[in-house]
Amino acid sequence: MLQDLKISRPGLWFPTIWIYLVPFALQDDFWKNWVFWLGLFFVTFPLNYLVYGLNDYNDYYSDSVNQRKGNYLFGAKSSQNQLASVPKKVILIILPFVALFTFLSGIEMFLLLFFMIIVNVVYNFKPFRIKERPPLEILIQIGYVITAIFSVKLNNLPELPWQTFVYLSLFAFQAHIAGEIMDIEPDKQSGKKTTATILGRKKTKILMFLLLVIESFLLFYWFQDIVLSTFLGIFSVWLLLDVLFFFKDKSYTLSQMKFFGYAINLSAILSMIWVLYSGKILQPVF
């Protein structure tokens, strides 16, 4: 069971948790509803076991040569025997939630969760295997936005503005690119093709920098969220300094990657609190 927990990558649960919480506002007292907690639990271990379990099942070799794997922060380094049972476990873990959420929210919820599963199958399995079809492996990360729609449907919340969906999509793209940057060497060694292995580390960092700048601008211009916009602006400046002066084209050490991982989780927690408190990301002015 601990190996399965490690496969789900608790250190990378923050995107699904963050996106699940976006539709809420603190003044709604949502934490008093048991359905909220059920949904929150689902987007932690169960949903991420679906996402990363299928990922690991199809990425045995690249994970085996990846130095950052083998922990709860970045995921397990599993044997082929351990991975063999993962698809069956995914089915056993996910299906009860599909049935329960369909009972609670109707056929639209079933179709939404079915689509979520299909996205992960298309991403990982042949003949599609979008994960090795750059830049589609980045664009398909828009599937993370389904988590926000799931949250809205499950908790009977108002529909999100289209501007919020645009921002969340950019957030998902940027989070995925960060992982690709750290995995360039093991991906190249295993013959895995990604946007980062094609562009190289510096150009991929510049791509991530541009996404951060756009996110920061949209937060300021569309949502008038000076706090979150400033935070992303500072992060983008650091990334630019990283490219131009600090690391340039050098790979990060394992200790540096772990530090970045913990820092990202801390910033995610703080930004979640701010998003819930301010509600600005739900109130575009453009």
Task: Give the helices and strands, then pairings.
Layout: H1 2-7, H2 14-21, H3 34-42, H4 45-57, H5 60-64, H6 80-84, H7 86-105, H8 107-124, H9 136-139, H10 146-155, H11 162-182, H12 184-189, H13 195-199, H14 201-221, H15 226-246, H16 254-278
Which terms summarize this structure?
286 residues, mainly alpha, globular
Please, could you describe this protein's structure?
With 286 residues, the chain is mainly α. It has one domain (2-282). Helices cover 69% and strands 0% of the residues. The protein has helices spanning 2-7, 14-21, 34-42, 45-57, 60-64, 80-84, 86-105, 107-124, 136-139, 146-155, 162-182, 184-189, 195-199, 201-221, 226-246, 254-278. The N and C termini lie far apart (47 Å).
Radius of gyration: 19 Å
Global outline: globular
Largest sheet: none
- Low-pLDDT parts are none
The ordered H/E elements are HHHHHHHHHHHHHHHH
Beta strand %: under 5%
Count the beta strands.
0
Q: What is the overall pLDDT average?
A: 95
Number of helices: 16
Distance between the termini: 47 Å
Q: Helix content range of the residues, please? A: 55-70%
**What oligomeric state do the depicted chains represent?**
single chain
How many domains? The number is 1
Which structural category fits the helices and strands?
mainly alpha
